[in-house]
Amino acid sequence: MKRAFFLILGIVVSVGCFAWSLQGTNSAQLKAGFSGANYWTLPIMLLLLFGFYWLKTLRWQALLAPVAPLTFRQLFSPMLIGFAANNLLPAHLGEFIRVFVVRKQYGVPASTVLSTVVLERIFDVLAILALFGVGLLFTDDLPDDYRNGAMILGALAGGVVLSVVVYLIWTDVFLRFVAWCFSLLPFLPAKLTNGILDMLRKGADGLAALRSGKAVLFIVVTSLVQWLLNGMIAYVALKAFHIDVTLATGLIVTGVTAFGVTIPSTPGYFGVIQMCFQVSMKSQQIEPDPSLVLGASVYYQMSMYIPVTMLGLYFAQQLGLSFKDLQRVADGDKTPPESDANAPSGTQAGE
Questions:
Q1: Which of 42, 56, 255, 260 is deepest in the core (most CB within 10 A)?
Q2: Local structure of residue 242 (DSSP, 8 states)
Q3: Under a CB-based contact definition with an 8 Å cutoff, are residues 71 and 349 in contact?
Q4: Cα dihedral value 61, 106, 91, 135, nearest 10
C-alpha cells in the first residue's frame, strides 16, 4: 500500500511538472528545435558525463579509504548500479542498493558505507550551492526571491556541516545529544531509536576520511569539479538548441535541478527536470523560446539517463544481479544484516 501511494504520488508530481513545463510551447516549434539541434555536441556531453562519474568514484574511494581501501575499479560498478537504480526505482533507492552491493561484494559494514554516502550528499549540497552562488554572481537582474532562497539553503547547508563536524570530533557527545532528543519523543518505537543510534556509532568509522586535511581538500575539490562538469553538460545542451546562454546559466540550471529532483517524482525525474529548466530560464529573465528550452531539457536528460542506466544494468548483470534483485533489495533488504557481511560473494576489500 505504501509503495503504491508513493508511486501514484510520483506520477502525479511528474505529470504536473511536465504540464507546467509545456506552458508557451507548441509542437511545431519543438519539432523544429529537435530538427535543428546540433547533435555533434553529444560526444562532448558524454565525455563530461564520464568525468562526472569518474570524479564521484574517486571521491567515494577517498571517503572509504580509511576503513575499506577499495580500488577505483571495485567502486565504479556499484556507483553506476546505484545511479541506474535511481533511474528505474522510486524514492532514490539506488543509494541503498549501492550500499548493499559494496557490503555484499567486499564485506564492508553497511552502516559504514551508508555514512560515506551521506557525506557525499553533504559535499554535493555544498558544492552545488557554491557553484550556484557563482552562477548568481555572474547573472544580472536576478529576482530577490531566488537570492533569498539561495541564502536560506546556504544557512541550512552550514547547519548540516556543523552537525557533521560535531559528530566527527565529539562523537560521544553528539550521540548523547541525539539520545536525549529521542527521549523527548517517547512515541517513537525503541527499535527505531536504538537502530539509529547504533548506525551512528558504527557510521562514525565512515567519517574517518575527514580527519585528514589532505583528504578533505581532495574531497572538496573533486566535489566542486564534478558539479562544474554537470553544469557544463546543461550549458552544452542549451547551446545545442541554439539558446544564447553563458556557463553561469548552466550552473544555475544544475543548482535548480539538483534540488528539484529531491521532490517525489517518477524514477528518472521525468517532468521535474523539464520544469527546472524552464524555471531556471525565467528566474534569470532570459526569454528563449520555451519550446527550445523543453527540447534542451529532454536532450540533457536522455544524454545522461540512457548511458547511465545501460551501464548500470550491465554491471549489475556482471555481478549476477537482475532487475528483480534490485527491486528486492529496495523493497526489504536495503541494509542486510551485518552477520552475512563476513561472507561476501566477491573479492575481499583491498584485493
A1: 255
A2: T
A3: no
A4: 10
